Amino acid sequence: MAHPAQTSPAAPPPAGFSTVAVLLFDEIPLFEASVPIAVFGERRAGTPEFEVRAVSAEGGPVRTDAGLTLAAPYGLAAAEDADLVIVPTWRHPLSSRPPSPEALDVLRRAHARGATVVSLCLGTFVLAAAGLLDGRPATTHWRYTGLLASMHPRVEVRPDVLYVDEGDILTSAGSTGGIDLCLHLVRRSYGTRVANTIARSLVTPPHRAGGQAQYIDHPVPAPAAGDPLGDVLDWALRHLDRELTVDALAARALMSRRTFDRRFRRATGTTPAQWLLHQRVLHAQRLLETTDEPVERIARRAGFASAVALRPHFRRQVGVSPAAYRAAFCGPSGPDRAPGTGTGAGTGSGGGAGTPPAETAAGAVA
Description:
This protein is α/β, with parallel strands linked by helices. It is about 40% helix and about 10% strand. The protein has helices at about 30-40, 100-110, 125-130, 145-150, 175-190, 190-200, 230-235, 245-250, 255-270, 270-290, 295-300, 305-320, 320-330, and strands spanning about 20-25, 50-55, 60-65, 70, 85, 115-120, 135-140, 155, 165, 170. It comes from Planomonospora alba.
């Protein structure tokens, strides 16, 4: 778990944390489980030497979802005095096996005594089950943010960020979001130099701000067939180039605006207006990846009045400009088009509809 010390002296003991307990549950993904161990467990020249304790949260060997068995050397008692307690991942959130009461109690006690409690990726579901996220903002992998919101309605789910720092409790999105959060913890306690040293060792970007968006495809679960709300969401996704208002969507679902808003938030963890804007930017992302159309035309096909209207929303959600995103995801060979498509092909919402009218407003969802 830790390489021999380098010749250079280690940094002095951390002001914020030195003992890290990593709670490992049965049937978890191996990569996510290893993230905090990789960040904190390796000894590097000029960086703190953390005491990392791999804890079997349910007793006995830990089986991964790939069938590998890990012999975690510590039991839950090892987390009782840790400065930093991390749940790096979790088995599928719909598993019939909830977290053990003993593990949840350890997390509650850790928080009560002032330890920093962290979840990475699906580990957020465990913190939510412990009640530690009630009334707090939190995030998880984009594929499961809607499920998190429906299972734990008292959590303020943020579906489009890499991580959330609430001081004593921090949560992160997917695998690389977990690395980002661990480096953020180092930076928060030790400063940029130490965090950059660890990042270089891992060959990963030294800093991605927590508010940067996850690169996501579908921020909510697929709508169920025959569900009025799901049918309306499906229809809206196919007509993003039109001017869509929340009132019009509610009417299409045969619901009052208040009922529609309430059911929408319960199902997705966000508001209809935010969801529509998010979907427009996602559609613009796909068009940037798969066509070489000008950004102006892509903006209109995604329901924005112009490229000028698209850019601030795109940068806020994705973290980069449309041009930078296209350069990063297309590569030197150009767009990765589906067979039979070309410049200007009708690839998006609206069933192949052309450019929407110029007066279509960006995110017209009042």
